[in-house]
Amino acid sequence: MKIAIASGKGGTGKTTLSTNLAMFLGESESVVLVDLDVEEPNSHLFLKSELLRKEDKMKMIPRWESGSCTLCNECVELCNFHALICLGNEILIFPNLCHSCYACSELCPTHSLPMEAQKMGELSHFLAHPIEFVEGRLNIGEEQAVSLIAQTKKYVEKHFYDETITLYDSPPGTSCPVIESIKDADFVILVTEPTPFGLHDLTLAVETTRALGKKFGVVINRYGMGDDAVETYCQNENIAILAKIPHLLEIAQCYSAGKLIYPEVDSFKQALEEIATFIKTLSQEEVVQ
Amino acid sequence: MKEIVVISGKGGTGKTSITAALASLAQQSCVVVDCDVDAADMHLLLQPDFAHKEDFYSGQVAKIDEMLCRNCGRCADVCRFDAIGFKEGHYVIDELLCEGCGYCARVCRPSAIEMRERLVGAWYTSKTKYGSDMVHAKLSIGAENSGKLVAKVKKEGKAMALAQHKSLMIVDGSPGIGCPVVSSLSGANFVLLVTEPTLSGLHDLKRVYEVVKRFRIKAGCIINKSDLNATVCAQIEEFLEEEAILHVKNIPYTKAFSHAMIQGQTVSEYSDPELKRLLEESFETIKQTLGV
Ligand code: SF4
Ligand code: SF4
Ligand code: SF4
Ligand code: SF4
């Protein structure tokens, strides 16, 4: 079963929940945590892990072969992302702008633009006893996050059985990378906090999740710090609140030191238990279907 | 006119609250720009009036004309983004998946595919509750290329600040370290890094500073919630010294941020004299560095 942990925005406690929930569930189930926040993967900071495997992740970009090129300029005209220009007697390629659509390569009349793999980032697979942990990491300055997210998910699908609980730590926001990371999830947990910022970002995240037709529930983090507008919103919209994590200085301190929280803070562990119970009912529903 | 951009690398550090506080201190001497177009929040504190709205188009999206389509499937064969599927006897394009490369349109013999401009969001010019002008935006769900919308918002803000002879433009920068944050940094005179003393705060600060360095912009840092973890706070201070980043201020952990937010106020108007003083001093330091 695949569960994506998302939030409209960074800083709501998504990574805290992902890492702690993964380790907690890992005590009784087979769990893999996948950090899909490939621009800034942070889950590893909270896990003691041992590297099992590392792979370079590639994207395909054209390489210009000057010998056969007739400088007809067709490729330059057809690239919608302006990744090719003709300068004097040369075709220049800007790999950062290329979306790997293959159009120039396959439509070049003289086949002078073969596609070649270029490194865009890395995938690392760790053992973080008792769970396994996979992280995608984009090179700085690289823009095609969606492709690396898709490749990371593919790796996980290949290496883990269906009965494993897969937790995706999704990127923040509501744009393409988030969509890629939640589009095949069985369930989405939206993490929010009880403030006007939290509520505003939650409404955007709910809109996105609904647009994709996904089942979802909300976890309110830092419960007690603000007002009850998030709860009221969830009630009015018929959204299940899976757990409320209290606003405690102890939790913030554990987090700041990169420590797991549930072994130290009881109320946090209770919240995880509530979420775990919910996840188990979900997987039973699946069996019934 | 000088441009201050506030960024944090990581979310949740109080970046937007601090930017809004600076904007409220600057009052009408500044134009405010919200570049966090993915999840713009600053309007909750500055209450702009959304007076003027314009749609923003960027990139393209493919559309099949069913009347012309002969169902040959060539388009689906060439699409590398799995955006073209076959449903109920027709080839259809999933707009969320289409990247707008235009390959399909080039191979369709009956020219049944039209490439259209893609609506990716809207941008607004407003008056804030302080009477200053503000430029902000909202990205549509699932849209990419927020970098272009960020660039647009910044360009409009700059034109406005210059036309009105303002001394400052205060920008709430984009989150992360990708393309949007690069767009929000371009042209800045000063970058204010807002961080918090947590391991991930430090980690992200280092990563985002790599981006800042490439632009050779003067940088300063506010450590928010500075008393949360003394060890990490000291590590951040060390990093600032190594990199010769101006250490603007430490702001201790306080509930005033969330309390002010709930009342729709900026932290500098909210009645916490100590916090107000820290922010005023920070603003003075930044202004002195910029010579405004
Ligand atoms: S389309 Fe092919 S032959 Fe024409 S300019 Fe480009 S690379 Fe050269
Ligand atoms: S593969 Fe597509 S995006 Fe890349 S250069 Fe060729 S036409 Fe442009
Ligand atoms: S290539 Fe053109 S005609 Fe063929 S299925 Fe696609 S849209 Fe229809
Ligand atoms: S424009 Fe490109 S991405 Fe969009 S449907 Fe056509 S081939 Fe696919």
Automatic annotation (TrEMBL), chain A:
Protein name, per record: Iron-sulfur cluster-binding/ATPase domain protein, MinD superfamily
Record keywords, A-Z: Iron, Iron-sulfur, Metal-binding
Source organism of the structure: Sulfurospirillum multivorans (strain DM 12446 / JCM 15788 / NBRC 109480)
PANTHER family tied to this protein: 4FE-4S CLUSTER CONTAINING PARA FAMILY ATPASE PROTEIN (PTHR43063:SF1)
Domain 4Fe-4S ferredoxin-type: 89-118
Pfam families assigned to the protein according to its UniProt record, in alphabetical order: CbiA (PF01656)
Keyword hit for Metal-binding: yes
SUPFAM superfamilies: 4Fe-4S ferredoxins (SSF54862), P-loop containing nucleoside triphosphate hydrolases (SSF52540)
TrEMBL record, chain B:
Lineage: superkingdom: Bacteria
InterPro entries, per the entry: 4Fe4S_Fe-S-bd, CobQ/CobB/MinD/ParA_Nub-bd_dom, P-loop_NTPase
Domain 4Fe-4S ferredoxin-type: from-to ranges: 60-88, 89-118
A Pfam entry, by short name: Fer4
Name this protein carries in UniProt: Iron-sulfur cluster-binding/ATPase domain protein, MinD superfamily
PROSITE patterns on file: 4FE4S_FER_2 (PS51379)
